[in-house]
Design brief:
The complex is a heterodimer of chains A (428) and B (507). Chain A has 428 residues and is α/β, with parallel strands linked by helices. Chain A is 33% helix and 15% strand. Chain B has a two-stranded antiparallel sheet with strand order 1-2. A two-stranded antiparallel ribbon of chain B has the order 3-4. With 507 residues, chain B is mainly alpha-helical. Classes of the chains: A alpha/beta (428), B mainly alpha (507).
């Protein structure tokens, strides 16, 4: 999707526009630095969203000594006592930077409601347009000068069911890469390039005239709404800059790196997430669908889990190599777990009562196992945790006050996390 | 525009009505004059081009056509603005635009999933009522009291759309949600904080919330007693208390009921909301429409802030006049846009923090933006009853990408800005093949480049380029005399103009 044409056509005018506010040096680096919150150790979150409800009993909480475990097997990790399913042979090497919460428990067993809860921290309520957690982070970390939006959603299965800025409004809206992508080639951002018919022409004069006209108009009317629209236009123009387009260009990675992540939409999505993390996007999510395994659970989970292992482990490796692992929190989860009892189609059905979330990176993930489920996997036995607890914990890591109130679309303030939320002590 | 006949009607109306929109507006101007910034005797009115663009966007939801803009700018009569307001406010498009306002005011939840499917029918019905001159309180009464029971009344006009059941469906049939909706969004009274417990800082108690909810409990089937609704009760969750319907204001009030018929509590509540003496309904509507048209409410909605007395008095006065004018929403909109506060030159941010409620720069809503793009490209305004499903579908796709229905909510994300620069729907407006204006200009060799450019400015921004702009246009090669590339040059210029902040705001 990136090509010399854009670079040649946009370079002079856009380069001038972008450097105007940040004199000297690489503008991309400077803009990223300007938006950074230095007080918090964790700078960004990468959510690996397993859409459809993953059978966490076959991933992070395997029951080898009970019939409910089925054919799933475990492997040892680098951390004594912590075992993963045997699909995660590569991730097992990074267990010292992981923490598994085995005691998630919720009450929503319907996909739509559970996705809402898992992604916003609230059950759906009377016309309240709740924002995704990614939008909340983007809103807290918003910087008008940032070259990229604060929330990037890679390969979401569908919108607006997921990835929504809700009542926070458009400045927190996700940039979507490859909506419902079927192949690696679909991992593109819409509308980043000029109309096809115009691509071979010089774009400079129209961009220059637009900027001059806006400058003059805004000079006379520095009203909030006008400046806000002007700044959205400037951000969009910056996103059309070759350096930003380059962030989305996976061809700039070596073949071996791309292989390491796996040549799947999810694997390449994880690689893209790493490229965006390097450019200080505060919230990036990569989705992998197909976890709604009512039938043929074990084969399907196996093939999906191997994609997760390639993408996730490669991400850990690269973030570590770039000294970014401590400042990046990775969450790997879906909307609920699946029934421990195996059904007649060798499948598992929806099970919100007991499920697991994998968290990695940041300063606090050190091989912990948090909470436990019963021997048969059906109930949480120790340290039950809700979605709001998880959100409050991530907030604490990011230095965001989970009790902060935002104005909602129904004239009622809503807190970042539910008022009853408790942080997970082991992870803060 | 031909104004002779409208002027005649206007004069007739002026004679017939003791309190025209203009007279009331003049009284408001007088009331607000006391809070003008120090040393200011009056507001500076905006120029004619700005006025027509502003009022067209506000009353009919789109920018004026180039012809309308040019005709208006060349008019020099003292009554030109009043005539334009009269004509715009009485067009069918005004009913549609006000219906969008009403729908998003009363049912904000229908602007988003999962209730967004209710929006088109609700708006269409409200627009139909407004076109028929139905008072707003009556529209509210019908929307709150609507039920699933089959209509039995004689003499109903079958050609009319049936009342949409939005209040029921957008609240999942739940009494407490319908109650919160009917008080919060129809009256501006937020009882819902008291839903779970008595709130130490709010005026309302938990019992008051549930007593209101009790009105929304369905009537038992087969009830015929006219006071059956009073016996409806509702249990307060997580308590052992049960309460009956009672008004949160504490007043005792009796509905009008035909003898030997049972009416539901919801019908009773709807009657109370819509009666002339309800002190919340008119105030809330006036304050919200003022916010829609001027970018800020007349009286602050913030519980811990106070508005200047002159603003409070103006709200009281205008609410009273709205009631006297039979809750005529078109009249109210005409009156607000006739004020000096509305017609003032919009000011720099630093000077709008004073007490005077100046008009502020607002973003365009999704529908305003699409309809203005259509008009700018030289296409006739979209008609849901005439245009193809494809065209209408394109409009809803566009609005879905720009989901703002109130000017105060209109924001812009970078993704939306990208869609406006490079998106396929906007491409349809920009490329000469589907832009009748550019196509027409390109095929008119008798027009000079300057004339073509000027035409594009009028069509998009409702004004001619000024001197500085002419210089810039020339520098960037937009005035180059080259017939072969004219279409392309004009479509690029069209792109520039529709992407400007000037085009994307109501200023």
């Amino acid at each position: 999707m990136l090509q010399g044409i854009s670079r040649r056509l946009f370079c002079s005018s856009l380069m001038a526009a972008s450097t105007a506010s940040v004199p000297g040096g690489s503008w991309l680096r400077n803009l990223a630095a300007a938006g950074k919150n230095d007080t918090a150790k964790v700078q960004r979150v990468i959510l690996l969203w397993l859409h459809g409800g993953p059978a966490t009993i076959d991933l992070w909480d395997v029951k080898t000594d009970h019939e409910n475990g089925g054919p799933s097997r475990e492997i040892a990790t680098k951390t004594p006592g912590l075992k993963f399913a045997d699909h995660f042979s590569r991730l097992a090497n990074w267990s010292e930077n992981c923490a598994v919460i085995r005691s998630m428990t919720t009450r929503e067993g319907d996909h739509r409601r559970a996705v809402h809860l898992a992604r916003t921290g609230y059950v759906p309520q009377a016309g309240i347009d709740f924002p995704d957690f990614g939008a909340l982070v983007a809103s807290e970390r918003f910087s008008a000068e940032a070259a990229l939006p604060g929330f990037v959603s890679i390969a979401p299965p569908q919108r607006p069911a997921i990835a929504n800025s809700g009542f926070l409004g458009n400045t927190a809206a996700p940039l979507v890469v490859g909506e419902m992508a079927k192949s690696i080639d679909d991992l593109t951002v819409r509308d980043l390039e000029p109309f096809a018919a115009w691509r071979s022409h010089d774009q400079r004069r129209r961009v220059d005239l637009l900027q001059e006209m806006n400058q003059e108009f805004l000079g006379g009317k520095p009203a909030t709404k006008a400046t806000e629209i002007g700044s959205a236009t400037q951000r969009a123009l910056r996103m059309m800059h070759p350096d930003v387009l380059a962030a989305f260009d996976l061809n700039q990675e070596t073949g071996s790196t791309r292989d390491r992540y796996g040549r799947t939409v999810f694997g390449q999505g994880c690689l893209l997430a790493r490229r965006l993390a390097e450019r200080d996007v505060p919230f990036i999510e990569v989705s992998l669908g197909g976890w709604d395994t009512h039938s043929d659970n074990f084969n399907r989970v196996g093939s999906l889990a191997r994609q997760v292992d390639d993408g996730f482990a490669s991400l850990m490796q690269d973030l570590h190599d770039r000294s970014m692992l401590d400042s990046t929190l990775i969450l790997c989860q879906g909307e609920f777990g699946r029934t421990p009892k195996i059904n007649a189609n060798t499948g598992r059905d929806h099970w919100p009562r007991a499920w697991a979330v994998m968290m990695a990176g940041g300063p606090n993930c050190r091989g912990q196992i948090i909470g436990s489920t019963s021997r048969d996997g059906t109930t949480v036995e120790t340290q039950p945790h809700s979605v709001p607890n998880l959100i409050a914990t991530v907030c604490a890591n990011l230095g965001i006050d989970p009790m902060k109130q935002n104005a909602s679309n129904v004239n009622r303030p809503i807190r970042v996390a539910d008022p009853d939320a408790q942080v997970i002590e082991e992870l803060v | 525009m031909k104004h002779t006949w409208t002027l005649a009607i206007l004069l007739l109306l002026l004679a017939a009505l003791p309190c025209s929109a203009n007279e009331i507006a003049a009284q408001i101007d007088k009331q607000l004059a006391s809070i003008l910034p120090e040393g200011t005797a009056a507001t500076t009115p905006c120029d004619e081009a700005t006025f027509l663009r502003r009022v067209s966007l506000d009353l009919i939801g789109r920018i004026p056509t180039a012809a309308e803009a040019q005709a208006f700018a060349s008019q020099k009569t003292a009554t030109a603005r009043a005539e334009a307001i009269f004509e715009l406010a009485n067009s069918p498009a005004a009913a549609q635009r006000l219906a969008t306002f009403v729908r998003s005011l009363w049912f904000p939840q229908t602007s988003v999933a999962p209730y967004e499917y209710l929006a088109p029918d609700t708006e269409a019905w409200v627009a139909q009522q407004l076109r028929r001159g139905e008072p707003l309180n009556e529209i509210a009464r019908q929307l709150i009291s609507v039920s699933y029971a089959p209509h039995t009344g004689a003499g109903q006009n079958e050609a009319l759309l049936s009342v949409p059941k939005t209040i029921i469906e957008a609240n999942d049939h739940r009494p407490e949600r319908m109650a919160a909706n009917a008080t919060g969004e129809f009256l501006g009274v937020d009882l819902s904080c008291a839903q779970c417990h008595d709130h130490p800082f709010h005026a309302w108690s938990q019992d008051q919330f549930w007593q209101t909810a009790a009105y929304f409990e369905p009537l038992k089937s087969g009830e015929t007693a006219h006071d059956a609704w009073q016996k409806q009760t509702i249990a307060i969750p997580d308590t052992d208390r049960t309460v009956s319907p009672a008004l949160f204001t504490g007043e005792s009030w009796s509905p009008k009921v035909a003898p030997a018929t049972a009416i539901s509590g919801r019908e009773v509540f709807a009657q109370w909301v819509s009666q002339q003496s309800n002190r919340y309904f008119a105030r809330w509507t006036v304050n919200q429409l003022w916010a829609e048209l001027l970018g800020q409410p007349l009286v602050t909605l913030h519980p811990e802030q106070f508005s200047p007395a002159a603003r409070e008095e103006t709200l009281e006065f205008l609410s009273g006049e709205f009631v006297k004018h039979q809750f005529d929403l078109r009249w109210l909109a005409s009156t607000i846009v006739a004020t000096q506060a509305y017609q003032a030159k919009s000011l720099a941010a630093s000077s709008i923090e004073g007490e005077y409620p100046y008009v502020q720069v607002r973003g365009l809503t999704g529908p305003q933006l699409f309809d203005s793009l259509s008009v700018a490209a030289g296409r006739p305004p979209l008609r849901t009853d005439l245009d193809s499903a494809e065209t209408i579908g394109r409009r809803s796709d566009f609005v879905a990408a720009f989901p703002a229905y109130r000017t105060v909510d209109a924001q812009r994300s970078a993704t939306q800005a990208l869609a406006l620069m490079n998106g396929p729907i906007v491409e349809q407006f920009c490329v000469p093949q589907s832009n009748p204006l550019v196509q027409g200009l390109a095929a008119a060799p008798f027009l000079s480049e300057e004339e073509c450019v000027s035409s594009l400015f009028w069509s998009t921004l409702g004004r001619a380029p000024h001197d500085e702009e002419w210089k810039r246009l020339s520098q960037h090669g937009f005035l180059q005399e080259d017939a072969d590339t004219r279409a392309r040059r004009l479509s690029e210029l069209f792109w520039v103009l529709i992407n400007t902040v000037e085009f994307n705001t109501n200023h």
